[in-house]
Amino acid sequence: MRKFSWQEGMGDEELNIDVTPMLDVVFILLIFFIVTASFVKEAGIDVNRPQASTATQQDNASILVALTDDNSIWIDGRKIEQHALRANIERLHAENPKGSVVIQADKDSRNELLIAVMDSARAVGVSNVAIATVEGE
Q: Could you say which residues form the signal peptide (predicted)?
């Protein structure tokens, strides 16, 4: 009785494993996770916001501006100068015209800077401007 060898039955053909279906599944999963991931925009810096008892949740906030206690302005994780504020808000408003501006002002920041941000937003055409607070008692 002769034993059949693995190599004898193959001849000159090589065994290849087709990985195309596996790659298709991996790419479909990648696309699924990218599409379903929630993207949260942040101003890029933590601020100590004041408390307010009448605070409400702001929907559709697309432009977040942070004002720190040392009176610096942060948008999208970048520190910007006051003279460049209007241009940055205008650029972000053009990306999402229905979005609103939420100002995260530190409780120790100057009111003058807060008013400058609000004026810049209104000058660009943003009608919905809100100030972020911490929900109080």
A: none
Q: Please check whether residue 129 is in contact with residue 101, taking contact to mean a CB–CB distance below 8 angstroms.
A: yes
Q: Could you give the CA distance from residue 40 to residue 30 in angstroms, rounded to a whole number? A: 19
75: exposed, middle or buried (Cβ count in 10 Å: 0-12, 13-18, 19+): buried
Q: Give me the pLDDT at residue 28, please.
A: 93
Burial class (CB in 10 A: 0-12, 13-18, 19+), 101: buried
Q: Which residues pair with 130 in a beta bridge?
A: 102
Neighbours of 28 (CB within 10 A): 10
Mean per-residue pLDDT, 74-100: 87
pLDDT for 35: 79
The confidence band for 103, taking pLDDT boundaries of 50, 70 and 90, is: confident
